[in-house]
Amino acid sequence: MPIAKFRIHPDYRSILQVWLWHKCVDLVCTNLKVAAKDGCFMSDPSQHIRYVFTPLIAHVCDLPKASMIAAVSKNVSPITMATQDKFGDKVLYPPRTGKHTLQLIHDIAKEIDPWDLNKFQKAAKAAHLSGIHMPYSLDWLFSCPSVFLAGEVLHTLHKFFADHPLKWIKEVVGKTKLDAHFIAQHKRVGTQHFTKGITHINKMTGHEHRDIQQTIIASIAGTAPPRFIHAICALIDFIYHTQNPVHSPESLELMVQALSDFHALKDSIIEAEARKGKKGAKEDFFIPKLELLQSFRGMIERLGTLMQFSADMTEHLLITHCKDLFARTSW
After folding, report:
1. 3-class SS at 203?
2. Alpha-carbon span 211 to 209, nearest angstrom
3. Most buried of 25, 33, 218, 248 (most Cβ within 10 A)?
4. Which residues pair with 76 in a beta bridge?
5. Rg (CA), the chain
6. How many CA atoms lie within 13 A of 223 on its CB side?
7. CA end-to-end distance (rounded Å), the chain
8. What pLDDT does residue 313 have?
9. What letter does residue 277 receive in the DSSP assignment?
10. Backbone phi, then psi, for 43, in 5-degree steps?
11. How many CB atoms lie within 10 A of CB 139?
């Protein structure tokens, strides 16, 4: 992927970089788009020749990249019609189809030249779009962002847990007491023991997120309001049910029920003033990743278990094959 520098006003550099990204992915995937439309001969793992088609099934990415791919702004969901003020609702909104997004882009482009960046950007933002006029999935047959943007476990679940529920717990229980409870835990094989607590850790990996989730409910029992604990427990249950390697109608029902229980109890988080912002306690749940959780059942029914789309492996390879090697260079 080229790293370009645009000699233009800083306000427009980011959108041009995104345009370039979409163009590059479009060029890379050209043959796949042709195969999705016309089909092609390929050999399967048993070396048998098959005539196959290649629709885009899944694009594994975090939330900012998903919004970029769906060509929508940050204050709306990339896969449903939910807007920012609806993120905390216990409602599954209709899918934000690629056809709908492309129609909005087409309507704006008829009135304003996309290369008139200032006017096109303003019109796009008014329609909750990001300003991208040619997303790479534009001509990919049978491909829709509301379908191929699969729920990604590492960022949508574990990172969400660290960014929100864990912070709520720190506010209610207190950092000193929470650290003391984790330090006092017995060491167990297969689980990390946090000898200095958890509140001082600035950068956590998915492995640490999972280890904290295993004991967080027991660690806050008796030190937080019961309904608050039940709300956190329901969210942890949802995270665990989502990671099942095999799903059944019953397991999906349990997963949906866990999320429903959290929404029924989430007022306890507001009552405890656990959700903080720059101006003090918040009384809303305008959290984009929380809204994405409503779509998990449909994703699993369409694509299968979400564990196959986790970014754990690619994130690990980024460290071992890029970051570690870069540290050994002369830069």
Report:
1. coil
2. 6
3. 33
4. 83
5. 22
6. 18
7. 20
8. 76
9. E
10. -95, 140
11. 14
> For tokens 């509140």, what's the residue?
199
Contacts of 159 (CB under 8 A, 6+ apart): 62, 206, 209, 289
CA distance 280 to 277: 5
Report residue 100 as tokens.
């709908």
CA distance 274 to 174: 11
Q: How many residues does the chain have?
A: 331
Residue 327 phi, psi dihedral angles, 5° rounding: -65, -20
Determine the Cα–Cα distance for residues 258 and 281; give it in Å rounded to an integer. Answer: 26
DSSP code, position 154: I
**Of residues 234, 245, 277, 288, the one with CA closest to residue 62:** 288
Q: Are 105 and 81 in contact (CB under 8 A)?
A: no
Q: Which residue has the tokens 């899918």?
A: 95
What is the enclosing helix (H) or strand (E) of 281? strand 280-281
